[in-house]
Batch of 4 targets.
Target 1
Amino acid sequence: LDDNIARATGFLARFAKDGVLNHIGGHAVPAASGKTFEIISPVDLKPLAEVARGDAVDIDAAAKAAHAAFAAWAALPGAERRKILHRIADGIEARADEIAMVECMDTGQALRFMSKAALRGAENFRFFADKAVEARDGKTIQALGQVNMTSRAPLGPVGIITPWNTPFMLSTWKIAPALAAGCTVVHKPAEFSPLSARLLVEIAEEAGLPKGVWNLVNGLGEEAGKALTEHPLIRAVGFVGESRTGSMIMAQGAKTLKRVHFELGGKNPVIVFDDADIDRAVDAAVFMIYSLNGERCTSSSRLLVQEGIYDSFTAKIAARARAIKVGHPLDPETEVGPLIHPVHEKKVLSYFEIGRADGATVAAGGEKATGPGGGCYVKPTLFTGAHNKMRIAQEEIFGPVLTAIPFKDEAEALAVANDVPYGLAAYLWTQDVTRAFRFSESVQAGMVWVNSENNRHLPTPFGGSKESGIGRDGGDWSFDFYMETKNVCFAT
Ligand code: NAD
């Protein structure tokens, strides 16, 4: 741990000294206003850096830079874009330790997960690099008396707005397909965790990405974020964050008719039938709520268990939750680190009171934890004896907090699973294949995993239904968003 702290301190020194600058038209620049805001580490609440506080003026400069760079970038053959994107992946791999450690100190996420997240960022770039060659491929549709040729072209400059949870991985997931499609980008990262976005844009330009193709403006959501969604040169906004922010962005973008892609919140059920492979289901349920501090859109925050196995299953989860190692994010042994920020910690702690007041039982955790540095640590928590009308079953807590609810039969499980405003993911545990198909068809979720934790395969669609999102990422779905489709019809 001491070695890791020393290395992380080395990586962070430049931010403490020079602050975190914007990046516009290939230049690292402060906010035009000269204003900054301070970020702190959730480990010890000490300042990490002063960050450029961009506003509408900086967004305007970034949008113009992205607009100016667009024609040349869009005209570059896909094979050339492919090479550059692979070089970005090389750069990420070369600096994966630095990225992971900076991310740990900025977000509180445990190193064991951030090391993987950094490499997944490289994988995202490689995946979309290889697709860049085919992004513009069209098809021919023949009908009597006509031949139709459909083609796709990049939309133009796009805005990408990302949240504070796993910010590095999520930024690569949104930006790599935009670049592969031939779009240029203005990125506005979350104000709680802006450090890795700065590393990423530097890596991209060192890899040969032309200046102005990727611009970065830090700032507050209601200032820089809002200005980005309203800017007339920005053709589309890819947004990852809370559902209510998505709703604001839709309203803000209405005047300029922005195309939007939203990956929003979730209250994802894991449904365990009594014929399930119990040991695997326990492992997966524990992993899906307590890994990444529970600050994960696809976390399985509602545990629906069939009556006959409810007590034994929840007892196993409670024992596992109590045994989880909460600690310094840079400690390789740590499973749960401090939550992102005192504001968020307060929100998560408030749900411990709400759950108790609503009559649920705290079977594990339910209080603040002590940890090195005295930061935003909370205990991995399990509520039992809950029902689906309780706030702890309806609202996204976004922490290591699981709410367990018993169900009688398949019909009741389905009704409870669907009785939330969200519809991102569902996890289903049963050995009955017919039931798995039937249930998957009716459960309201953009993604269903059967007998598995969240196991991503990049060509498959990722996204949510209901208040969990609009649109899909992954594979060719990403290009549908970042590209415009044209049909040319020839009479024969
Ligand atoms: P948030 O909505 O508060 O902020 C996300 C981003 O939006 C930040 O960069 C913020 O500055 C910006 N923003 C805020 N107000 C804005 C406005 N009016 N206009 C433009 N931009 C604005 O979300 P958060 O708290 O940072 O992240 C956590 C949320 O993200 C959770 O709800 C989580 O479920 C969701 N999330 C979803 C997915 C998914 O794939 N579905 C993935 C990760 C996170």
Note: The first strand starts at residue 22 and ends at 24.
Target 2
Amino acid sequence: MIKESPLAPANLGEENGVRSAPLTPTMEGVAKSNQADTGNYFQAPIGTHDVLPPQSQIWARVVSVFAERANRFNYGLTITPIFEHAEVFERIGDASDVVRKEMYEFRDRGDRRLALRPEGTAPVVRAFVQHHPTPPWKVWYVAPNFRYERPQKGRYRQHWQIGAEALGVSDPDLDVEVVSLAAGFFLALGLGKTRLLINSMGEPDDRIKYTEDLRKYFLSSGANLGEEFLTRVKENPLRILDAKKSEWQTMIEGAPQLSDYLGDSAKEYFSKVQSGLKALDIAFTVDPRLVRGFDYYTATTFEFVSDDLDAAQNALGGGGRYDNLAQEMGGDPAPGIGFGIGMERVVLALEAQGLAEEIIKDSASLDVFVVDGTDDEVAALVVNDLREAGISVDRSYGGRSVKAQWKLADRSGATYGVMTGESENKNNSVAVKNLKTGEQVEVRREHLVSQIQNSKETKR
Ligand code: AMP
């Protein structure tokens, strides 16, 4: 479970404003507005959450499964700043909600216009343009993102994404590789029911013609759908296609489809991606209405959807090609493709599938709890020897009675309790109790590490 902060108050009129996070002289302004929301300084701000043990074990597992897989695909970890010049994110699209309404933008004390990272691709492309690595540049990341959204289950003001990007090459095989990196990640976590939707956004010219026709269609048949609809039609009619509003659905269903506007080269590229996915046995559905939130996408786009989540937040992750973004950031032309997966949503899907508890149980790996029966240094030495030998060990503190320590040992979930005692000290030994069976034996100190290690091996 994610420990949630209280949801935002009902009155979020500012959410509809052009810029919800006010431009303030320093970050204190952002902090103050959060405090005003909650009326309580000492709670995590609205829309953020703490991830605490034991649930954080799920996060650790998700990251380690991804990291291992990324390593196998030869993607290297990349870490970029949590904030960038606001212009970096403005390149992802002035018409996107993320940039227009949701960015945590501020001026620092040197009057620089900065923004907390709202998404993962732009900083990676900025780093590519800045450092000129040799293509193909294949990287992965895990990082928090910030968006001033209306908080609800699966939608937060700080959320984490784990993702990958591959820059410098345009090749359908690379699109397939990137999709398969993500698809296999869900499988490895046990989320085999995750559905993959794919589409092609075509080349920029294809999209310009399509956007014009879409705008005409929406204006002619949706004039009575209200101000928000008309604003979106004006600013970016593509963003209507994936809107969830029920009263817009009939209109959306009748809309022209981008696939009818693709030029020959975009069609050929998309068909190669599809045959590549089929060859790898990666199931997918072509969804002609899949348009992702940012303006930078070209050609292949994709999304992973889980039916375990509420329909409005059912995307576990998504991504696509962005062949012009590097150039828009002042770099040489360099195509790219990547995806971001929402960590919180993956955790929600694991919980819905009943897999989260299993991960927590699996990760509860305390081998030994040491009970100090002599109040000298021996217990600390035993703890240290075991830990340095790779065995997980805990102990109690504050000079508790032996009885109280055994109680803690029982509650700790450890496999063994190891006690130092006067008579054992004389024999240079310790008492080892199997906490599951109650069986107790005396073991010489020099054999303790190997004995525990052997028993761990046998358990495996
Ligand atoms: P995007 O960067 O908008 O393409 O989002 C990629 C993925 O991040 C989505 O599919 C979600 O799983 C997740 N995500 C996006 N926005 C949020 C949010 N506000 N809260 C939680 N997860 C999010």
Note: The CA atoms of residues 187 and 327 lie 35 Å apart.
Target 3
Amino acid sequence: MTATINRTDIELSDDWRSWTPDEQDHWAREVRRLAAEKDAVILAHNYQLPMIQDIADHVGDSLALSRLAAASDRGTIVFCGVHFMAETAKILSPGKRVLIPDAAAGCSLADTINADQLRAWKAEHPGAVVVSYVNTTAEVKAETDICCTSSNAVEVVRSIDPDTEVLFGPDQFLGAHVRRQTGRSNIHVWLGECHVHADISPSDLMATVRAHPDAELFVHPECGCTTSALWMAGRGEFPRERTHILSTGGMLDAARTTTGTAVLVATEIGMLHQLHKARPDVTFTPVNPKAACPFMQMITPPKLLRSLREGTDEVVVDADTAERARRAVERMIAIGRPGGGE
Ligand code: 13P
Ligand code: SF4
């Protein structure tokens, strides 16, 4: 496509991958100028394209970005991530204008459960506490007792009376991780998955680990290979002390302090940009180099510029749904470590 974005001093094509260094500089200056003019803060998830991460005010994991959105004193939040993240920011800050550069940036995991399905599941387990991953729609959050992210899921479940049943959804691999970590048998787990992380398979993991036997291993708990990583550690095939199950923010914290020189990374490949920046002296190798999230990549440099110029796409959550969802999201941001973003 060759549509153009008109600017005062230059025209930028939508084909941003072929921009010259001068055009990239113009884009960056224009984004920063408009952000200041519109009183906007730009938040970017760790899986965003490198150019988006580099122009943002803050880059972080889901939990850190939710906290930053809630604490921001700017009138506008431009959320470079997927739709449920921008919606969560709107739920926390109903008085602010929240923009996402492309509202069609969805999430295959969030699509695995809707509010009707959750209501039916609750009816089967009266009295259970519902814990929903933040990767869900506002309507699902409105039916939820406490939300969580991958960085605080274990702590959220530990905060619940051990004798009370828990409905955990929608990610089955994160649910299995929480069940293992808490040792609880009264957790029911929804069988959803993220297609990107599910595709980071046990065979990818085994091949990569065998090719790099001295490396550290960072695994996101949404991965289809999380159980295999721990199984390999349990059988002594790969040392347990070098196997770390971490959120994206946790991976960055661990990268900053690692004493190793090589790290294998099982998550979406956008993560490698922050890891390389944090530790240029360490070699980071993706377990599946094709694990790119198509939804995250829908947020492109031209769309970010257009979002700031034209106020698109504005995120709207109806007041009643937002009110009911807010309790669950506020409980989420109150639990867990403060880090995970910068
Ligand atoms: P975190 O940033 O919370 O680790 O989440 C990963 C993810 O899949 C977001 O879509
Ligand atoms: Fe959703 Fe998976 Fe993409 Fe994260 S990586 S936004 S969970 S589809």
Note: Residues 110-193 form a domain with the Rossmann fold fold (CATH 3.40.50.10800).
Target 4
Amino acid sequence: MDLEQILHEITQDMATRPDRGRVANYIPQLACIDPDQFAISVCLADGTQYSCGDADMSFSIQSVSKVFALALALGRVGDHLWTRVGREPSGQAFDSILLLEQEKGRPRNPFINAGAIVTTDTYLEGHSPAEALGGLMRFVREAADDEDIHIDDSVARSEIATGHRNFALAHYMLSHGNLRHAPDLTLGTYFHQCAIAMNTAQLARAGRFLMNSPDLVRMLSPGRVRRINALMITCGQYDGSGDFAYRVGLPGKSGVGGGILVIAPGQASIAVWSPGLNHYGNSHLGTLAVETLARDTGWSIF
Ligand code: DON
């Protein structure tokens, strides 16, 4: 299999696609990103990496950060997290409040916004926001084996000023006793977490700990990695998770910045980025690209 050639052909194909999706505009700093950009990067278990397109352009990883936050929170409190967050797909948009009322402030899973806010609230416990974010950044930099990964403060501030739905979710959960900190403290941390910026090549490297490959340095136990992957395939693309599993057949986590981290267990960590989104809020061309990659490599787990 010539992976370099496969990535090259995917990148060429994506460049000719007229429908590029629509960039997220509810976060003002993301509304002005050029939707013509595309990058894909693959890290294999033997340590080789192949990248194509705009793979060194930095972007806002947004909800892809929820995977790193979940790994950190599980490391801190273990299965206790599941007393506050569920493990079921929601079938609702990532920022929906609907089920939260029916289910008394306990979010369906750690990847929808409400669940991610509780996850942040968990790793914040006993720390200042700066310390908590410092711990998260240490984890991400170690995973990527790259110190040059930072938080884009202008994106975080842009969302603090406009993130009214997330404030509503946080206050609602607080009213049910499912938030331990003041909403502005937890959300300040959450928005900065979402504003982590990295490029596609760095993101593919940062995902290697989820491959469960015996050849790579382990950051989490194999059991925990397996479970995070299970959550990624069932909940990682919100109400588009079934469609993604059907088309791609691999665990993935998307973000409204247009990035998707996809894991081929034991084989590869894949990052793709294209800022235009589909109606679920996941990268339109990114999904198409990993659908093609999974088909051409035979990496689907099904
Ligand atoms: O909280 C938000 O709405 C954003 N910071 C993250 C949402 C997101 O990335 C959804 N992903 N597709």
Note: Residues 129-144 form the longest helix (16 residues).
